[in-house]
Amino acid sequence: MTTTAPTDSAARFELAHMAHAELYTPDLEGSLWFFTQLLGMRETGRQQGSVYLRCYEDPYHHSLKLTERDQPGLGNIGWRTTSADALERRAAALDAAGLGLGWTQGDLGVGRTFAFQSPDGHPMELVWDVEKYRAPVELQSRILTRRSKRPLQGLPPRRLDHVNLMASDVTVQKELFEQTLGFGTRERVVDGAGGGTEIGAWMSVNVLGHEMAIMRDQTGSKGRLHHLAFWYGVPQHNSDAAELCREYGIQIEAGPDVHGITQGAFLYVFEPGGNRIELFGNSGILQFEPDHETVTWDLSDFDTGLAIGGGTLPAETYFVYGTPGTDGQDKLLDGWKDRDLV
Amino acid sequence: MTTTAPTDSAARFELAHMAHAELYTPDLEGSLWFFTQLLGMRETGRQQGSVYLRCYEDPYHHSLKLTERDQPGLGNIGWRTTSADALERRAAALDAAGLGLGWTQGDLGVGRTFAFQSPDGHPMELVWDVEKYRAPVELQSRILTRRSKRPLQGLPPRRLDHVNLMASDVTVQKELFEQTLGFGTRERVVDGAGGGTEIGAWMSVNVLGHEMAIMRDQTGSKGRLHHLAFWYGVPQHNSDAAELCREYGIQIEAGPDVHGITQGAFLYVFEPGGNRIELFGNSGILQFEPDHETVTWDLSDFDTGLAIGGGTLPAETYFVYGTPGTDGQDKLLDGWKDRDLV
Amino acid sequence: MTTTAPTDSAARFELAHMAHAELYTPDLEGSLWFFTQLLGMRETGRQQGSVYLRCYEDPYHHSLKLTERDQPGLGNIGWRTTSADALERRAAALDAAGLGLGWTQGDLGVGRTFAFQSPDGHPMELVWDVEKYRAPVELQSRILTRRSKRPLQGLPPRRLDHVNLMASDVTVQKELFEQTLGFGTRERVVDGAGGGTEIGAWMSVNVLGHEMAIMRDQTGSKGRLHHLAFWYGVPQHNSDAAELCREYGIQIEAGPDVHGITQGAFLYVFEPGGNRIELFGNSGILQFEPDHETVTWDLSDFDTGLAIGGGTLPAETYFVYGTPGTDGQDKLLDGWKDRDLV
Amino acid sequence: MTTTAPTDSAARFELAHMAHAELYTPDLEGSLWFFTQLLGMRETGRQQGSVYLRCYEDPYHHSLKLTERDQPGLGNIGWRTTSADALERRAAALDAAGLGLGWTQGDLGVGRTFAFQSPDGHPMELVWDVEKYRAPVELQSRILTRRSKRPLQGLPPRRLDHVNLMASDVTVQKELFEQTLGFGTRERVVDGAGGGTEIGAWMSVNVLGHEMAIMRDQTGSKGRLHHLAFWYGVPQHNSDAAELCREYGIQIEAGPDVHGITQGAFLYVFEPGGNRIELFGNSGILQFEPDHETVTWDLSDFDTGLAIGGGTLPAETYFVYGTPGTDGQDKLLDGWKDRDLV
């Protein structure tokens, strides 16, 4: 059986966590309404048409950058290393793997980064130098580990949690992240009837059940985003969020329910730009074992993996819809275009 | 617009609440396992093959009687009146409506009752004399409004909550209960495309959003049970119950989610005898207005009515499966017969 | 043992529920910030310096009227009857009891009322004609029993729930409400060491565990308000509210915890005007029995009555602070005057 | 400002997590009742008078060993390293620090360990070889990351979470764990009036807000236990646990509420043997930053640190009671000796 975090890998302990993400949106105003008015995220900057946002417990300048584009999709994922040296070592390893794109000047609140792409072409970067967020006096919290007051606007998640990527080949994607960046694969789904093809993998560089998931893109597309997730940590908040989405015309795809895989409390919605967003209502299973073995789900026993309750994941969207869309996919969301923004 | 609780009706304020229910089960041992081991109900008596159970906050001797029969289904629903005189008046009214079956000697913990049937044939009775439950010393709670200690076994609901009946004609059933027994109709669903046919009604004799629901039986059968519901009142407990049902092989039909209709937090499962049981995780909307108007949902806008979140009610079971089953219906539950009872 | 809702009382079934309340505040701006920004209530009118507010599921024009005065305190409590005739009958009964003050022209959204005072002088009125709230299109909810959309501002309670009055003589106050207005006394606390003096009573005209509580005023004052309560119905929301109060400088007195008495999930805070407000995170025990006996707590076994968890009610405020304050009482809140309103 | 996890320390990344703990109890039967009947832990072995228990998601043979002794207290804490080599390196470092006690043969389900003591004398060990728990078929969960089915008995926590130690000198204790074992100090409390004396520190080897806390022992005793904590992760479960403790006569010291420090949802109770047990209802703040700075609370601003809500920590027990007790301390729990075990 596979050991997910080989104790002898040079890549182990080199990445700390996901620090920021960029989403493209064809409806910047609508997306901003969703993230700031319904999810209560606060704006921390604007530059060249992009808007920078953070949740109230996110540690850095921003966790989400929204950029207007013709098509929704993933603009970037930034992984923070555990040290400055680790950044250099992982950059070299990515170059050796043929995936490095080179050093960048960074961004608002982000220093020098090493850009790379996943085997499937997802845009990513590694970073060490980041600007820690310091709240102005009126936003400082009496709860000292909280980087800013909990907002009174909307139903605010506490931080950026994880990303789920669709990939043309799950195994290739997974092995690169294991070997080059030290990810441990906590769980995977295998299609036994399909000769053991991996159709999903849930990976982490720390005790979280996953910070990155990879799911097979049934359309055969490459480099698409399945969803970006924000963390409430409190199950009730997923129910509250579902209610607000229902009230304000944000399309709910599935949930609230709890996945068997990762034990994550999920609510999937589509933000007005078309990207799927997950709201995460617990911490899922935390994995402390240093020599944890990857848990393997067979497709034939997958129902518990998808949902512990009766919540089903709609096959017509969940397993095929990603961003950017493929031809015709934008119609999947047509019924919801007349949302009630107040 | 209809006024649900006409201020001049002689039937108003005559019924207090649902006091007890009887279920038939072809698998008494399995049903008992479910109600006592998973739901933590306590047995308070056995007589002639029936077992009497109560939740820890139920006020009377029992709230549920389980009786072995070839087919699952509803054995009885007992409504308690607001006074001894009200019982006499309502018995006379039922006789006048041609639905009275006559007086009975009662049952364990239940005095003289007036038996009747709904227009569709559902067996019911009215009662005034009941035995209040008095816990033995070791089960007495320090919380004085609690009739017995919260059990340490399973995930115990607090009390019997409501019943949902399938009916061949919703309107006929509804009007009898409004006019003869003083029920207010809080909400109803109308099939506008079907010329305004009522396909569902939610009724109450007190501030609860519903103590009885009536839904159209699409199979054309008469007198069947849709579900019996038990109350947690705490949303998290519905998630906990879903997890336990998943762990121990009890089939989950739908939920946890929240209906738009009644705003009730639902989890539907099938107990081993085949009856659908709802676990109710909040109090739903409470209706205090004495002159509340019935809220009407049109079938074309029904999705929010069914679920506020993404939880769907599976059409292949939710709208057709009832107990007793019609030919072939028992196969709907076949996949779950191998439950893991520990 | 006392039967709380005598089945032969002419007053039974005459009152439906508490419809509205008025609070005085010496800091109208601060109070408005609390009720609209933190609790997300919406303004529905202004008149003669008073501001009218409602929760998103309150059925009528308003549930709370805020009026600026030198001292905080209770301006009014409005009880709605179950019919127009019941209003006339109860007005006559109050007149006969010597407590009637006469008919009024009503208020914004409120028709003709019959004003009276409690034996201790608390200002109250009975009403039948009220204006049902009709939301403008942009505030209409898809959940049809919800009178308006759940707000995105603050942490909004769903409706006005109950009032707690301090009284110089609990028994006198209680008996008037039982005999003249048909309240049932669900629970009471008796000081056994004090010869059986009643020091608290929890009363209701419907299945709620209490819509009015009466607690002995240890300062010997008359006609003071202990607290006014708003309902979340969801336990987690009380924790969320505590966090927001802590973040934004609203003084928390006690909670979140659950009282043994009424089984109510409580959080007590002081709104900026100085009135104590309770946020209510469940529905408490619901009492369906038409012949329920009053539960009596002895002071010597009172700890479970106050709190099921470890949450204590601070003796230096909880049992003596009311509004309007007595000499020196306003200093109890001094430490919190520098709240962080954003 | 201190950086808690120096990026150049050889001790960094050497410890994985707390694997097991041993408690002494003068009332083995009572303690077993509490841990197995109320908390639903399952017994996995007995040996020489000790009983081995685990929560349903604990990864190894056991997480808790109960041993009968005259006095309650801490028998052992076992920390698992991230590799076999790390164990050797940390053993050498402990020897160099003069705290090593030598290698042991291990225990049931535990291989060779390196025993040591904290500067204050708390008994501990490091371990790499542990027996992973494999559930028998009837206890295997369909949720594959769950090592065994969620029990139907009591209100089961999911895993052992953290330990809180009382120490005669917080700083000495803290620095040893930082320098020798790679702990990061997430938060600390300093008595500014006392010249900056540290009176509390919360430390972790992973993203948890704390796996070990150290609080100043005001009695001047050495090596005592403040509490051992088990994790629910769901806030509602802390309320449920409080209710069950109240019902079954287990003394509640404080909570449910949420600490500002660690943002942990706490409930403190005393198990029948006298040890303080914390039930942990969320995950607290998770700390992902590799270069996180220690957050410092001043004693003068400590109230939010202790509790976000109104829940106070009783000074007469919380800051002085530990196990084993000092003279007279056992009387603190006298009032609760007559618990109602059913």
Automatic annotation (TrEMBL), chains A, B, C, D:
Sequence ranges assigned to domain VOC in this UniProt record: 17-129, 159-282
Domain of life: Bacteria
Pfam families: Glyoxalase
Name of the featured protein: Catechol 2,3-dioxygenase
Natural source organism: Actinomycetospora chlora
Phylogenetic classification of the source organism: Bacteria, Bacillati, Actinomycetota, Actinomycetes, Pseudonocardiales
